Amino acid sequence: MAEKILLWMTVNGEARSAEVFPMARLLDVIREDWGLTGTKEGCGEGECGACSVILDGVLVNACLIPAVQAQGGELLTVEGLARKGELDPLQEAFLHHGGAQCGFCTPGMLMAGTHLLAQGGPGDEAEARAGLAGNLCRCTGYNRIVDAVLAARREHP
User: Fold this and answer.
1) Is the pLDDT of residue 75 over 80?
2) pLDDT band with cut points at 50, 70 and 90 for residue 88
């Protein structure tokens, strides 16, 4: 059995570390070692987007990333969106526009939306849909999610 290594990085603005096996998935470290269970596992193959997080400014599927690849990086998970008990503007928009139903895809959708907004978009509905395309939802039919992202963009440019 492989020896564990020390993983360290900044997670939601705080220094974190964990002893992990070399091929541990970032998703498992986030959920099991750091107790940040907002990030979900859907397919485990990078197809559904439920495990989307922002690593060093890039939207990634945490189920596909070996944790050691994130060594020293900066990670933002859904738990890092709210500040001091206040919801992030996109979270507020999801709430007001009914962008969450069962909630399983919601963390990944929020992270994809956050990344899209950080890039200065979306300019229109087509851009919103394209920016969320890597995330699957079985409940809302996407319209409410797209509406929420567009509303967050309008209300907080």
Assistant:
1) yes
2) very high
Beta strands in 14-97 (DSSP E): 14-20, 52-55, 58-61, 74-76
CB of 61 closer than 8 Å to CB of 54: no
Could you say which architecture CATH assigns to the domain 5-80? Roll (3.10)
Domain residue limits, the chain:
5-80, 89-155
Rounded CA-CA distance 1/15 in Å is 28
Sign of CA pseudo-dihedral 74, 79, 83, 89: positive
Q: pTM for the complete prediction? A: 0.95
CATH topology of domain 89-155: DNA polymerase; domain 1 (1.10.150)
Residues in a beta bridge with 10: 15, 74
Identify the CA nearest to 69 among candidates 22, 104, 130, 128. 22
Query: Angle at the Cα of 91 (from 59 to 140), degrees rounded to 5?
Result: 85
Q: Mean of the per-residue pLDDT values for the chain?
A: 95
